Amino acid sequence: MATNDLLQRLPTVGETFTTLNDSNRRQIETFIAADAINQYDAVSFDLANATDAMKVTLVRRGMITADANCCIGIAQKTVAAGERVDVVTCGITEANVEAATVAGDRLYMNTVGQLAVYAAAITLPIVAHACEADTANIATVIFLKQF
């Protein structure tokens, strides 16, 4: 289910934003989980699905294979297969990241639904930038629009 792109809100003089949702600078779309997904996992379209329409309706944790990497966002709650899941498709969010992630790291999605630190040998697309170091594999990131 698509959301609207609305005019972004900026703080008034003397006002500050205190939560990730305050600035409205992110987009959230609702999809159906193709498999179990954990909160803050990176998800991709289910490109292996036989039905074309379902390829972009269902999302799965991580990628199927390196050639089917279609990371589209970060899940906002833990769900079982068949349940609806809200996915941040653009903007700031918490995300499951690999250990030793630090602020400024460029990130790509690995096979287990985690954002991993980009290195020279990686050919997968950069999908996010880390805003902080990870704490127990969770960090604030800016997810770059892919969808």
Largest sheet: 5 strands, mixed, barrel
> Which class do the helix and strand fractions yield?
mainly beta
Share of helix, binned: under 10%
Spatial sequence of strands, sheet with the most strands: 1-3-2-4-5
Name of the CATH architecture:
Beta Barrel
Short characterization:
This protein is mainly β.
What does this structure look like?
With 147 residues, this protein is mainly β. The protein has one domain: Virus Head Decoration Protein, Chain: A, CATH 2.40.300. Helix content is 3%, strand content 33%. The protein has 1 helix and 9 strands, in the order E-E-H-E-E-E-E-E-E-E. It has one helix at 52-55, and strands at 27-33, 42-45, 58-61, 71-75, 84-96, 106-109, 115-117, 128-130, 138-143. Strand 4 and strand 5 form a beta hairpin. The relative contact order is 0.20. The model has no long low-confidence stretch (mean pLDDT 87).
